Amino acid sequence: MKLYLAHPFEMRHEIREWELEFEKRTGVELVNPFYDVAREDMVKFDDGLAEPRTIKEVNDGMYIVNRDLNVIEHCDGVVAFIKKGKESFGTPMEFFYSSRILHKKTFAITKNHAGHPWIRGLATEVFKTPEDFEVFIDN
Q1: In whole angstroms, what is the distance from residue 72 CA to residue 76 CA?
Q2: Distance CA 103, CA 84 (A)
Q3: Counting C-beta atoms within 10 Å of the first and last residue's C-beta, which end of the chain has fewer, N or C?
Q4: What is the average per-residue pLDDT within 92-117?
Q5: How far is residue 116 from each of residues 42, 76, 108, 120, measured CA to CA in Å?
Q6: Number of structural domains in the chain
């Protein structure tokens, strides 16, 4: 199984750490749009050489949008981290696209928004922790 890993830019480091360990434990491939897809800008961001959304490719929003949508189309579904105080515009768009447009499996990992009607209505399954999601995937 290959899942697109939707999450806010600000959570990229903690999610990357979790992603790599999750893949080892489960054998499920997670495609991280910040690190597993061609993103020369991420090296600059992570090295402190650029601020988010200042590089040409980032400023040209359709470049990133089209690239991410294409990656989602080639995955079996999406797993999305939705965290209070770390909301992003991209994560819910990717979540909606996978669920409603492509009709693919779409998983939400969220503590604070698990009961929201849009999440309950679009998600294949909702989990409160990454560990709960891992148990589900292992079964």
Answers
A1: 8
A2: 26
A3: C
A4: 94
A5: 32, 24, 11, 6
A6: 1
Domain span at residue 18 reads 2-138
The order of strands in the sheet holding 125-127 is 29-31, 2-6, 77-81, 105-109, 125-127
Tell me how far the alpha carbon of residue 134 is from its chain's centroid: 15
Q: What CATH number corresponds to the domain at position 106?
A: 3.40.50.450
Number of residues assigned to the chain: 139
> pLDDT, tens digit, for every residue of 47-101?
666 665 555 555 567 888 898 999 999 999 999 999 876 778 899 999 999 999 9
Cα angle: 49, vertex 35, 128; to 5 degrees: 115
Residue 120 CB contacts under 8 Å (≥ 6 apart), including other chains: 114, 126
Q: Give the separation between CA 14 and CA 5, rounded to whole angstroms.
A: 13
